[in-house]
Design goal:
This is NmrA-like domain-containing protein. It comes from Gossypium aridum. The chain is mostly helical. The chain has a domain of 127 residues: 3-Layer(aba) Sandwich (Rossmann fold), CATH 3.40.50.720. It is built from eight helices and six strands. The protein has a two-stranded parallel sheet. The chain starts with 6 loop residues before the first strand and ends in a 5-residue tail after the last helix.
Length: 185
C-alpha cells in the first residue's frame, strides 16, 4: 500500500473569529471596528474547502510529494473586508484605524519587560502587516491537479453574504417576535 505525501500551505480561514467577531458583529451592533492602515492582503479560504481539497489530494497519486498551496479566490485588505461588511450589513461602520507603526512601536516597547512579553508576542502580527505582502497564491495548478472547479470554492463575499443574510433574517424575526409579545395595560 502506497501512502501519498502531501505538503499543504494555506492562507487564513474564513471561519476565523476575526472576520465575524472583529468586523461583522461590531458593525451590526454599531460598535467600533478596529482596523489597520496596512496594505497587506490575505486570501481567506473556507475550512470545508480545505478539508475537501485535502481529501481529494490524499486519494490522488499525482499529488504525491507535491507542495500544494490553498488560498481563497481573492486577497483582501482589512479596509476592503470592512467595506464589504458595511455593504452587506447595509450600514456604515464606526472604524477606528490603528496605524501599523503604532502597533510595531508598542510591540518593541513591550519586549523590554518580562511581564509584558505576552503582549509583545500577541503583537507579532504587526511585523507581517508591515511587510506589504500579499498572502495569496494562484490556485489554477492546484485546481487542475485535483480536478476541482474554481467556482466550487467559497469566496469571502459568499461566506459573508450567507452570514449577513442569515443573521439579519434572525434579527428581523426576533424583533418581530418581541413586538408581538409586548403587552400594554
Amino acid at each position: 500500500m502506497q501512502v501519498n505525501v502531501i505538503f499543504n500551505r494555506k492562507d487564513d480561514f474564513l471561519e476565523e473569529p476575526g472576520l465575524i467577531g472583529q468586523y461583522a458583529v461590531p458593525i451590526l451592533e454599531e460598535k467600533s471596528v478596529w482596523g489597520t492602515d496596512a496594505p497587506t492582503r490575505i486570501a481567506y479560504m473556507d475550512t470545508q474547502d480545505i478539508a475537501r481539497l485535502t481529501f481529494i489530494a490524499l486519494r490522488n497519486e499525482k499529488v504525491n510529494g507535491k507542495l500544494l498551496t490553498f488560498a481563497g479566490p481573492r486577497a483582501w485588505t482589512t479596509q476592503e473586508v470592512i467595506a464589504l461588511c458595511e455593504r452587506l450589513a447595509g450600514q456604515d461602520a464606526n472604524v477606528t484605524t490603528v496605524p501599523v507603526t503604532v502597533l510595531r512601536f508598542t510591540r518593541q516597547l513591550t519586549r523590554f519587560f518580562e511581564w509584558t512579553n505576552d503582549v509583545a508576542d500577541r503583537l507579532a502580527f504587526s511585523e507581517v502587516l508591515t511587510s506589504d505582502t500579499v498572502f495569496s497564491a494562484p490556485m489554477t495548478e492546484t485546481y487542475d491537479l485535483l480536478g476541482v472547479d474554481a467556482k466550487d470554492i467559497v469566496s469571502l463575499e459568499k461566506y459573508l453574504q450567507d452570514y449577513f443574510t442569515n443573521i439579519l433574517k434572525k434579527l428581523k424575526d426576533i424583533k418581530a417576535q418581541s413586538k408581538q409579545t409586548d403587552i400594554i395595560f
